[in-house]
Amino acid sequence: xxxxxxxxxxxxxxxxxxxxxxxxxxxxxxxxxxxxxxxxxxxxxxxxxxxxxxxxxxxxxxxxxxxxxxxxxxxxxxxxxxxxxxxxxxxxxxxxxxxxxxxxxxxxxxxxxxxxxxxxxxxxxxxxxxxxxxxxxxxxxxxxxxxxxxxxxxxxxxxxxxxxxxxxxxxxxxxxxxxxxxxxxxxxxxxxxxxxxxxxxxxxxxxxxxxxxxxxxxxxxxxxxxxxxxxxxxxxxxxxxxxxxxxxxxxxxxxxxxxxxxxxxxx
Length: 267
Prior knowledge:
- Pfam families: Hypoth_Ymh.
- InterPro entries: CHP02391 (IPR012654).
- With 267 residues, the chain is mostly helical.
- The chain has two domains: 2-120; 132-265.
- It is built from eleven helices and six strands.
- It has helices spanning 14-27, 30-39, 52-64, 69-80, 90-104, 132-140, 145-156, 160-179, 185-193, 207-231, 243-262; strands at residues 2-4, 7-9, 109-111, 118-120, 199-200, 264-265.
- The chain is elongated.
- It starts with a strand and ends with a strand.
């Protein structure tokens, strides 16, 4: 480790650089990535039209390979989390900071939401050494394929907060696409699954049919209000989630995915 300003920072592992690359790739366009690295002081890098996150991943590896490279990575992270880059979009800034903090906590680091600067906490979260029994518990649930797609890798890394959050976002998109609606959250669920909505779970002839339709609608709205919306405004470090709770929430989401699977679009 190299000491600078009395703070020693370990080089970032490739898995951490990969996760940071995906965040940056999602955040910026191709030309935006070039501008991003210029702001960080690395003017020689220009996006070449390849897959954004893979390009960023290669650049971060290159930057970290130079002397004191990890401190250059810290500088890049601080540019990514600079609040002035998110004027009039504070919610998105909180989401980005939360995702970054979920990665750098393993190095005893944390981004300040107010300043966008990295602070040294002195407490390394070693939960990445996860219990394989927890992964087995995930696999034993026989989740819907979308839950496995969006949640398993994050869950296996011990990132339960983001496993749940990503699956909630995936469900929101899943419903919006099938209902052909440009809405999100509880408003989307109400518009798509109400008695006059575009997604029908049954023929809505009997009282039982109508109760099922409205019941699923309220469950979907509840998930959006209780899980997706609050988590979109909280930092992962400030909203810890227990393994058993994460598994149960994912089970509910899996059930709802299957309900939407069987629904019929009625435009």
